[in-house]
Structure formats: C-alpha cells, structure tokens
Amino acid sequence: MDRPITPLLDTIAAPSDLKVLSVAQLSQLADEVRAETISAVSVTGGHLGAGLGVVEMTVALHAVFDTPKDKIIWDVSHQCYPHKILTGRRDRIRTLRQKDGLSGFTKRSESEYDPFGAAHSSTSISAALGFSVARDLGGEGGDAIAVIGDGALSAGMAYEAMNNAGHLKKRLIVILNDNEMSIAPPVGAMSSYLSQLYAGEPFQELKAAAKGAVSLLPEPFREGAKRAKDMVKHMTVGGTLFEQLGFSYLGPIDGHDMDQLLAVLRTVKQRATGPILIHAITKKGKGYAPAEAARDRGHGVGKFDVVTGEQKKAPSNAPSYTSVFADTLVKMAAEDSKICAVTAAMPDGTGLNKFMERYASRCFDVGIAEQHAVTFAAALAAGGMKPFCALYSTFLQRGYDQVVHDVAIQRLPVRFAIDRAGLVGADGSTHAGAFDVCFMTNLPGMVMMAAADEAELVRMVATAAAYEDGPSAFRFPRGEGVGEDIPEDAEPLEIGRGRMIREGSGVAILSFGTRLQEVEAACESLAAKGVTPTVADARFAKPLDRDLILRLAADHEALITVEEGAVGGFGSHVAQLLSDEGVFDHGLKFRSMVLPDTFIDQASPRDMYAVAGLNAEDIEAKVLEVLGVDVLGKRA
Ligand SMILES: Cc1ncc(C[n+]2csc(CCOP(=O)(O)OP(=O)(O)O)c2C)c(N)n1
Ligand SMILES: CC(=O)[C@@H](O)[C@H](O)COP(=O)(O)O
Ligand SMILES: [Mg+2]
After folding, report:
1. Same domain, yes or no, for 262 and 366?
2. For a Cys staple, 25 with which of 21, 145, 268, 484, CB 3.0–4.6 Å?
3. Separation of alpha carbons 490 and 324, rounded Å
C-alpha cells in the first residue's frame, strides 16, 4: 500500500527550509505551490498562467540560491505569486491585488525577498547588472538572477542591458523563461530565433561545466545529477546571439524538470564567472488544464471555479471603452484605407485584435516595444498613412522621447489612443494612467482630448482621424462605459471646443474625462442643498476652449476643474490661462481637483479614487468648501 504523502508546504516558513529537501521532495513542493497558486488566484483573480509556468523554477531557485542575499529579479513580476508563497507571504496570498493586500507584483516595500519592483517589462537584466556591479564595488553581496520571459525579450531595454553586461563581464545570471507566449502569441524575428534554438540541434556550452556537476552537488541532490549529465551529453556548441553578446549560453533545458533545473543552477552557482544565460523551456499555465487550454494560457483571469475553470464575470451594463474604440476604428478603416493601427504586444487589451482580423495588412503588433511603436507610427504618418498608435497610458511613458522627438517636433499626425487612462484598480500604481495629460499637453502642437463617455469617445476617434495638422491624442479609462448610445456617423469635433452640460450659478465645474459622471452625481446631491453648479465638459486639454473657460470664470464666483490625472495636466493649463488673462486679479476662486502627489496602491478603481479624493462626495465637498457653504447648505 502507498504511504500517504505528508504535505510539505506547511513546513516551509522561509526559503532556507528548502535546503534540506531532496529532489523528490522539491518536486512535491512544487506541486503543492502550484495548487496553492491556483487556489489563491481563484479567489482573487490575477495573473495565473505566468506563475504556473515558473513553479518548478521558483522552487529550484530558492533551493539553490541564498535569498534574500542572492537576488531574484522577476521581469514584469506578474509570475511572482509562487515566489511570494515561498517567501513568507503565504498567509496573505489570498489578499493578492486587493485593497490593503499583497501587490500583484514584486515590491521592495513588501518584502526583503523582493529586491527590485517591476510591472513594466524588460527591466530585469538592467537591474540584475546594477546589483552585480554594486556587489563588486563593495555594496551588498550575493548573486543577481534575472528571470525574463521570451515576450519581454522583444523590448530594446533587454538588449541595452545585455550589451552592457557583455562588456562589463560581471558575474550575472539571466534565466530566459521561454514559454513561446507573450500575452498574445509572441511576434517578431527574435521569437522565431528562440524557437530555432530549441527546434534544431541543442547546444553544449554546459557540457564541460556539467561534467563536474555531480561532485559539486551535496548528497540529497545527487539523484538528479545523472539525468543532468545525460542531458548535456546531447548538447553541442552553438554561436548563439547571446554568446555573441558576451554571455555563456546554457540550454535549452526543461524548465519543469526539477533534476535539470537543480543540476544546472548548482553548476552555474559554483562555476559562473561572467554573464551567463540559461535558456529554460516552459509552458505558460502549466499544470492547470483550463489555463493551458486558454488562448492566453490564463495570462490574466477573473475569479474562477477551480474545478471547471469557469470565470465569474460581473454582469456588464455597457460595452467597454476599449471595444468602443476598436469597433469605431474598424468601422472607419472600412471607409479610409489610410487608417492603420499599431499595438505594442497588447492586441486584446487595446481591442486591436478586431482590427487585425479585418485588416491584417494595416495592423501591426510590434511586440513589447513602445518606443519603436511610436517612431514606427511617426514614419507611417510621414509616409502618408493615418496611424493610430494604441497604447496604455502607463506604457506610453516608455515612448515619451519618441513622442517628443519623432512625432511632436516633426508635427506628424500620429493619433495616440491612450487606453487605461486614470486609476486602473488591481494592477495598482505601476499601471495607473496618471501622467499622460501632463506629458502630452506640454508638447507644442499636441491636441489632447479625454472622453467623458463612450459616445464622446466615438466622436474623438472621428476627430483624430480627420485631424491632419499634427499629432493628436485621446484618452479613455479601463472598464465599461456608462450606457450612452453610440452615435452612428459621428462628426469630428471642432478642435479646442468644449460643451456645456448644465447651466447653474455660483460655481462652475469644468470636467475633463470620465469624472463627469461623478460631477453629475455631486450636482444631484448639491441640488438638495440649494447649490446648482454650472457644469461643462472641456473635451480638450489642448488647445483649451478659451472662450468657454473665460466665460465660466466671468459668470461665476468659483471655478473648479476635475480630471483623472496628476498635477501639471488639465487644471494646471486652465490655471495658466486664467493667470495669463489676469482673471485671478478680479477675485475668482479657483480649485483644481487632481490625483494626489502619491502613488496609490491597488484597490477597486472606486476605492482608489476615494483615496485620491475624486469621487462625487469629494467634488460635492469641494464645491461647498469653495462657496463657504456648510453641509446643510448655509453660507458660513
Ligand atoms: C513595457 C510594458 N509593455 C507591456 C506590458 C504588458 N505585458 C505584461 S506581461 C506581457 C507579456 C510578457 O510576456 P513574457 O515576458 O514572455 O512573460 P510570460 O507572461 O509569457 O511569462 C505584456 C505584454 C508590460 N508589462 N510592460
Ligand atoms: C502585467 C501586465 O502588464 C498586464 O498583464 C496587465 O496587467 C494587463 O492589464 P489589463 O487587464 O488592464 O489589460
Ligand atoms: Mg512568455
């Protein structure tokens, strides 16, 4: 009769507890970590597939290296849940991505086992190199190990780091976690190259090192060493790109085989002198059938039933802003063969998968390469096309110099569709679309719009398509619209013209973007107190509707701007205009409601906006404060 297996995960308080486990026990532990990851994500939602693909690697890394002295740097870090389970955070793992809970990414302030935070991709090799150099200059000791995915390897930053590492020749370990997936199937020549590396003859750089592997291994690990030797027997020398860049290349290895992982990592730990890259082949979603079968391999999931894999979907009242944008663009592309679309590895997230299905030759997924996406779009525009460069606000940050240098200075009509504007919820501060209004509106010649609802978004897509005099941008949030009817044949807006929403007196609220719904809710509540603000939707942060703003200023005691962005954006431009026009000299009371000067941790968007003080109740309170009215509606 088989003896019952004693669970191991309950005995692991810290990674050091892994040191005494045999290969078989580490494999068992990996199975338990996988089950725990699935169970946790089923109640929180989040990034499932990537973590499942690195369970064995995570266990092996913690078994071989001495964290936190040795530093594991997870690229993007959406795959870090197994790492969190093993590094003292298992008791809070079901708070992942929740308000006051664990972050869905690595975070320095959360644990000493998270030496470097991430959430944007392709930073890990630079970070690992920085730690290696700091160590060699007398800073903190220990190895630096970057774990980077094949998708993340499409970004230029990874090559900038390898270029530098190959030159500096510091001891540095990079694990290429190759699961042949980005969020969508990976694109580009580099992806094909990686496939060739393991489709053809395997490589042998490991051979010499692995000869000594058995003797290097402590007793409990020797059982796996023979398999490692067998594996490297088949390896032959190859002039990989990585070797040309100055790395030793080891692999490809099976990233789910504990024997191989342990033997290779132990060998590297003992022998590495300079930069070394271990090419591990893994499966995204590994070990959970619904994730393995999903188109995105369970990249990002909602809460789900563990047995069936079925995700619990919140009932939806309106289409998402993303789908409204994509449907509108597809429709316009049918009429205008010059319209084309660019995404940086987010075809589904930006809705451009729909465009790709209809107009494949005019749709470009350039990989995780926002800088390239922007310059590529600039030249598409210079070449006579009408490019829509669809990026999340947070990722557009990476292409900023390109926006300035390649687009704005040359006044090229690139249309920036800025998705995920404002606070996004569970992804937290790294993904907040907080800064785009600031960094776009300060550029000469930029037209900057924000949609107040989905009907407005349709008009703004039409406006951007029609506008040829220079760059334009329109922003819209994550999530669903408010249920406005979608205009059939939307006319382009007049550039720099806002719209009146309701006429009132005393105070005017000038809204930019989807806070308009909160402004309206605030007005409902204020009406009961006898306060009836005028409300206008600015539509444009650049150029500003000067006439509208100056009229509001002249006709009211107070003017309040509201936006979903950091200081330095819409409200600051309005203040500049009012100051330039001498309006403040006549005693206008002015308030600008913006995101606070802090990074706001993950929670629901509503809770995040509560922290920011930008919900209806905050707007109502601001109106009362500026008018000097108490909560009962009486003037102080
Ligand atoms: C700069 C940047 N652009 C886009 C993203 C969105 N994103 C997050 S994970 C991911 C795919 C990463 O693929 P890979 O590195 O292969 O990791 P895997 O999920 O396959 O483990 C993308 C595009 C990002 N995090 N950062
Ligand atoms: C890790 C990452 O950057 C993406 O997976 C991101 O979390 C996707 O966000 P959306 O869910 O808003 O598309
Ligand atoms: Mg991948």
Report:
1. no
2. 21
3. 13
Is residue 289 domain-shared with residue 181, that is, in the same domain? yes
Cα 278 to chain center, whole Å?
26
- Is 357 among the catalytic positions? no
Ligand 2 contact, 354 CB (< 6 A): no
Integer-rounded Cα Rg, in Å, for the chain is 27
Residues 6+ away with beta carbon under 8 Å from 516: 452, 453, 501, 535, 537
Distance (Å) from CA 149 to ligand 3 centroid: 5
**pTM for the full model?**
0.94
Q: What is the pLDDT of residue 195?
A: 84
* C-beta separation of 259 from 287 below 8 A: no
Report residue 193 as tokens: 């190259």
Smallest CA separation from ligand 2 atom 13, residue: 349
pLDDT tens, 328-381? 999 999 999 999 999 999 999 999 999 999 999 999 999 999 999 999 999 999
Q: Which residues neighbour 311 within 8 Å (Cβ) at sequence distance 6 or greater? A: 301, 302, 303, 304
Burial 494-512 (b: 16+ CB within 10 A, else e): ebbebeebeebebbbbbbb
List the domain range (segments joined by +) for residue 424: 321-475
267 shares its domain with 150:
yes
Cα separation values, 292 from 21, 50, 180, 288, 296, Å: 29, 11, 13, 6, 8
CATH number of the domain that 436 lies in?
3.40.50.970
CA of 121, closest atom in ligand 1: 26
The H or E element that residue 24 is part of is: helix 23-44
- pLDDT tens for 22-64 read 999 999 999 999 999 999 999 999 999 999 999 999 999 999 9
Q: Looking at residue 215, what is its pLDDT?
A: 43
Would residue 303 count as lying in a domain?
no
Helices (H) and strands (E) in the chain, counts: 25, 17
Task: Please identify which of the residues 32, 36, 56, 370 carries the catalytic annotation.
Answer: 370
Flag whether pLDDT at 237 surpasses 90.
Answer: no
Please say if 312 is a catalytic residue. Answer: no
Q: How far is the CA of 180 from the centre of ligand 3 (A)?
A: 5
- Average the pLDDT over 62-79 and give the result: 98
Q: Is residue 313 in some structural domain?
A: no
**Which of the listed residues 292, 352, 368 should we mutate to test ligand 1's pocket, taking the one with most ligand atoms within 8 A of CB?**
368
Q: Which atom of ligand 1 is nearest to the CA of 179?
A: 20
| Residue 161 structure tokens | 């780091």
Catalytic site residue from 266, 284, 478, 622: 284
